[in-house]
Amino acid sequence: MRFFxxxxxxxxxxxxxxxxxxxxxxxxxxxxxKPLRGILDVEFDGKLRKEFDIYDLLPVEKKYFPSIPVxxxxxxxxxxxxxxxxxxxLYLKDDTLNPTGSLKDRASYLIAAFALKHGIxxxxxxxxxxxxxxxxxxxAAAGIKVTxxxxxxxxRAKMVQSLQYGAEVIQIDGDYxxxxxxxxxxxxNKGGLNRNTAYNPLTIEGKKTVAxxxxxxxxxxxxxxxxxxxxxVILGGVYKGFRDLLTLGFIDKxxxxxxxxxxxxxxxYKAFEKGEFVAPQKSKTIADSISVDVPxxxxxxxxxxxxxxxxxxxxxxxDILKAQKELASSAGLFSEPAASASLAGFLKVKxxxxxxxxxxxxxxxxxxxxxxxxxxxxxxxxxx
Length: 384
Ligand SMILES: *Cc1c(COP(=O)(O)O)cnc(C)c1O
Fold this sequence. Notes:
- The strands form three sheets. A six-stranded mixed sheet has the order 4-5-13-10-11-12, sandwiched between helices. The chain has a four-stranded parallel sheet with strand order 8-7-6-9, with helices on both faces. Strands 2-1-3 form a three-stranded antiparallel sheet, covered by helices on one side.
- The radius of gyration is 19 Å and the shape is globular.
- It is an alpha/beta fold and about 375 residues long.
- The termini are far apart.
- The protein has a domain at about 75-100 and about 205-380: Rossmann fold, CATH 3.40.50.1100.
- It has helices spanning about 80-85, 105-115, 130-140, 155-165, 175-190, 200-205, 210-220, 235-245, 265-275, 300-305, 315-330, 335-350, 370-380; strands at about 1-5, 15, 40-45, 75, 90-95, 120-125, 145-150, 170, 195, 225-230, 255-260, 310-315, 360-365.
- Bound molecules: pyridoxal-5'-phosphate (PLP).
- Pyridoxal-5'-phosphate binds near residues 228, 233 and 234.
C-alpha cells in the first residue's frame, strides 16, 4: 500500500510529512471563526485481502505503534435495552473501553506512531479534555513528551488524568479557541508535532478504525449508526472508514449516519439545514466534549453528510442526561454526557427507523470523566 494526502477541497495530492497539516493552497482561504479550509484526507493505492489486518489500512507501519492496547472495543447487544425499545438489532460500540476512556485514543495512537516513525519527541495539543488526557496517556506509553493547552473550565477528572500520565498542562484563562491559537504558536516557536483535532489530518484518519471494526464485527455494514458531533472529527473518521471499505470493494453502501449535536452547540446542524456556515454562537451544553463554537471539521463533514444521505439531529441537555441514566441503568454502560448523546438522538428519531434495522450507537467516552454532570442527571425524574 502507498499512502498520500489529498486535499478534500481541491484534490491536489501531497506526500505525508510531519510539517504538512492543511492544504497550502486552500488554507489561504481560511476565514476567522469558520471551520478549517483545506483539510487533508489520507488516500491509498493498492489492494487488500478481505481478511486484512486493520494496520494495513493505516499510513504508519505497525512496528511504530506503541504497546498500549487501543481500539478493538466490543460491539455488543444490550438485551434489556433492546427489549425496552423494541429494536432487536440494536448494538453498542463501546469506545469507553479504550485505555484512557475515550474514542480519542484512536487518533492519539496513530499520532504517537507517526511521531515515533519520524523521531519526534514531543506532541502538543489544545483540548478541553479528552484529546488531552488521551494524548497524555498514549504518549506516556510511547515515551513521548506531551504538552497540553487546556481551558481552566475543563472537567477536573480529565485534567487530573492528563497530569497523572505525566503531561505538561498549561491552563488557559480563556476558551478552546484561545488554547488552540496558543498551541499553534507554541509548535511554531518550539517545534513538536501538533495534534489539534481536524488540523492534524491523522486525527481523522486514526478515528476511522472504529468504523472498520464495526464492519468486521458485524461482518456487514449496519443500517444506521449514531455519532455524537462536536468538531466533526469522529464523524469524518467514521465516514472515512466506510469510504475506505467501499473503495476496497468490501462493502457496497455507506450506512445512514446520524450526526447528533447538543442544542446549545449545533453549528453543523444549522449549516446542514441552511447549506452554509453562519457566524458561530457561544456554545452552551452540559456535554463538554461536544461543546464547540467553531466546528473545525465542519466543511468536510457537511460534504460527507450531503453525499451519503446522512442526518443531523439536535438533543437538549435534559435529553442527554436522561439518556445517560437510561444507558447506565438498562445496559450497564456508564457514559459521559457527550457519549450519551448517541442514545438521546436515537430516542428522538427512532420512530422513523424500521424496527428490524441494524442500529449501532457509538459510545465515545466514560461516565467517570465528568461526575458533576452525572449528578445533575440523577435529580431528573422521568426516564423512558
Ligand atoms: C471528542 C468527543 C466527541 C466529539 O468528537 P468530535 O470529533 O469533536 O466531533 C464526542 N464524544 C466524546 C466522548 C469525545 O471525547
